[in-house]
């Protein structure tokens, strides 16, 4: 009852104040807890300044308009990104389907890739794109991609195998390297919306069980085929990559090695950071192929996968041509403490 009486008295006081000009200056007094939700200011004049509220209402209207347009812009940008991703995915699937048709056409049976004339496949893909250099195929089938090489490393960063604009780009060999280098690097995108595309599966290889099921792979060209086994999977951050010591001794982009000690430093660094227990290790004289992909949600981190060449076969030869051993000194994990 006391509350109802107080409210009734406030209403009467507000009417009295609004009808007497001499009290109008006092109407500019407002309490911090007062907010205008409706037209109640006609009755609660003591708590509200109509002029001030009008100004604030105008400011609120402007702010609301700005927020609305910002939200519209954000939604539009997101829509464009999703559309480009969708169209890129469709284009990528179309090209993948064509490449698979080339492989199936040269297969002895359509049940799998085990009996494929890879030399014929490579020759046809090279005819379709002269930048084609090899075909990368994991024995498990988790990754199966043609490899190109552009004039620069930007050439195929956002360009598909058939040279069409593409957010997913293509799998490409470093523009400054050759397949005959002691170590060469192949790059591929981590496709965030399709975990089976390009090099996205490599982001799971730090899991030992995934590695165990996908540790062997082959590299096909129109003249030879090489077999590889993964020996190291580790991460490199941008801050680490940019240091002088890393660039001079440990970079995964190192093509050749000055001597055995130089090679051992490179191998031991990879061993120290290895996230897996490999089925094989590196020794001085081994040739390697390194695969690189971005780590999901860590744009400044790269996942590095080092692959040891285990055999090389030239088309037309009667037997495998094993890679000659250039030395006997072991630079594998057992020579690095804590690996």
Give a quick precis of the structure.
By secondary structure, the chain is an alpha+beta fold.
Structure, described:
By secondary structure, the protein is an alpha+beta fold. It has two domains: 2-48, no CATH class; 117-335, Sortase (Sortase, Chain: A, Beta Barrel). The protein has seven helices and eight strands. The chain has helices spanning 2-18, 50-105, 118-128, 208-213, 238-241, 244-250, 260-273; strands at residues 132-138, 144-148, 171-173, 183-187, 216-220, 224-237, 288-295, 298-314. Strands 1-2-3-4-7-8-6-5 form an eight-stranded mixed beta barrel. A hairpin with a 2-residue loop joins strand 7 and strand 8 (298-314). The chain starts with a helix and ends in a 25-residue tail after the last strand.
Task: List strands and helices in order, with pairings.
Blueprint: H1 2-18, H2 50-105, H3 118-128, E1 132-138, E2 144-148, E3 171-173, E4 183-187, H4 208-213, E5 216-220, E6 224-237, H5 238-241, H6 244-250, H7 260-273, E7 288-295, E8 298-314
Parallel strand pairs: 2-3, 4-7
Antiparallel strand pairs: 1-2, 1-5, 3-4, 5-6, 6-8, 7-8
E-strand count:
8
Q: What do we call the CATH homologous superfamily of the largest domain?
A: Sortase
User: Considering DSSP H and I runs of 4 or more, what fraction of the residues is helical?
Assistant: 25-40%
Low-pLDDT stretches are: 26-50, 318-339
- Order of strands, main sheet, comes to 1-2-3-4-7-8-6-5
* Mean model confidence by pLDDT: 80
Shape: globular
Largest sheet: 8 strands, mixed, barrel
**Beta-strand content:** 15-25%
Alpha-beta classification: alpha+beta
Fill in the CATH topology of the largest domain.
Answer: Sortase, Chain: A
Distance between the termini: 80 Å
Main CATH class of the largest domain: Mainly Beta
- Structural domain count: 2
The CATH architecture classification of the largest domain is Beta Barrel
Order of helices and strands: HHHEEEEHEEHHHEE
Question: Helix segment count?
Answer: 7
């Amino acid at each position: 009852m006391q509350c109802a009486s107080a409210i009734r008295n406030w209403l009467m006081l507000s009417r009295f104040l609004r009808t007497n000009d001499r009290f109008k200056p006092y109407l500019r007094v407002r309490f911090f807890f007062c907010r205008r939700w409706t037209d109640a200011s006609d009755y609660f004049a003591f708590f509200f300044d109509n002029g001030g509220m009008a100004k604030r209402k105008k400011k609120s209207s402007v702010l609301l308009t700005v927020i609305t347009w910002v939200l519209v812009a954000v939604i539009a940008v997101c829509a464009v990104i999703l559309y480009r991703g969708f169209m890129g995915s469709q284009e990528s699937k179309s090209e993948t389907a064509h490449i698979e048709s080339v492989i199936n056409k040269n297969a002895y049976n359509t049940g799998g890739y085990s009996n494929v004339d890879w030399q014929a496949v490579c020759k046809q893909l090279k005819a379709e794109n002269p930048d084609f250099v090899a075909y990368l195929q994991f024995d498990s089938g988790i990754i199966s991609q043609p490899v190109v090489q552009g004039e620069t490393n930007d050439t195929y960063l956002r360009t598909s195998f058939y040279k069409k604009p593409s957010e997913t780009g293509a799998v490409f060999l470093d523009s400054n390297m050759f397949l005959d280098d002691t170590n060469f690097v192949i790059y591929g995108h981590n496709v965030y919306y399709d975990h089976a595309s390009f090099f996205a599966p490599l982001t799971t290889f730090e899991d030992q069980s995934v590695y165990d099921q996908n540790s062997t792979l082959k590299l096909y060209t129109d003249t030879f085929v090489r077999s590889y086994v993964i020996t190291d999977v580790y991460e490199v951050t941008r801050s680490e990559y940019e240091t002088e010591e890393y660039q001079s001794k440990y970079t995964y982009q190192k093509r050749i090695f000055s001597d055995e000690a130089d090679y051992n430093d490179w191998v031991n660094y990879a061993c120290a950071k290895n996230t897996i227990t490999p089925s094989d290790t590196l020794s001085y004289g081994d040739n390697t192929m390194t695969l690189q992909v971005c780590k999901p949600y860590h744009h400044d981190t790269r996942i590095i996968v080092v692959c040891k060449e285990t055999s090389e076969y030239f088309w037309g030869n009667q037997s495998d041509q094993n890679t000659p051993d250039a030395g006997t000194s072991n630079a594998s994990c057992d020579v690095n403490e804590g690996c």
